[in-house]
Amino acid sequence: MFDKPLMIFDCDGVLIDSEVIYLEEEFRVLTSKGVDVDKAWYVGEFMALAQPLWKNKFVNLIKERAGVDLTVDEFEAMKALTRERIAAEIKTVNGVEDMLSALRVPACVASTTQMQFLPKKLNRTNLAQYFGEGVYSGDMVQNGKPAPDLFLYAADQMGGTVKNAIVIEDSVNGVRGGKAAGIYTIGFTGGSHCFDGHDEILKAAGADVVLPSHSALLEWLSVNTNALT
């Protein structure tokens, strides 16, 4: 049993149901360039990658598959539209408020989202109240997900240890990062972007357990930790 563990949450797809918007806009651009890729493969390879890695990989994918370049203006237009949609359509993942309200242990956010946008997401969804100063972005460390740096940094800043921490992640790259940091990592499939088989992908990436909802997470915590008391 975990004794008063530090809870480390990814943001998009775990706390905020925004990954579906990112994927829709990215696939819109891929389709416009004549690139047809398997969604499961793309999600596993691209989701939650550190921003510089993701951009290079995305641009290279279009070049390799379609033989055309994605211009700087096209890339920035995609990012701008995505940000507009996030601001207008943002909502929490079902049950997250009940789960966070029940926690009686320290909790923080460790997200690939750039720091200039991450607090805004949490404020818009009224989730910032649960984390205080414990909000950490991939641009705070040298190597983002799937490297362990962000999780190690978050644990250190929160005064916790990797042996008594739990990471909640919805992406392959996030799970890999959590496990590389030596932290017990729960795969989460409660976001609307998750598809049939996403749980198996997270298990294959190394997730210690995969849970389908925040209510299931609460039940798991009640059995395996004293995080709720």
TrEMBL record:
Q: What is this protein called?
A: HAD family phosphatase
**Record-linked Pfam families:** Hydrolase (PF00702)
Q: Which PANTHER family does the record associate with it?
A: FRUCTOSE-1-PHOSPHATE PHOSPHATASE, GLYCEROL-1-PHOSPHATE PHOSPHOHYDROLASE 1-RELATED
Top-level taxon:
Bacteria
Q: InterPro entries under this entry?
A: HAD-like_sf (IPR036412), HAD-like_SPP (IPR051806), HAD-SF_hydro_IA (IPR006439), HAD_sf (IPR023214), PGP-like_dom2 (IPR023198)
- Per its UniProt record, what Gene3D superfamilies does this chain match? HAD superfamily/HAD-like, Putative phosphatase, domain 2
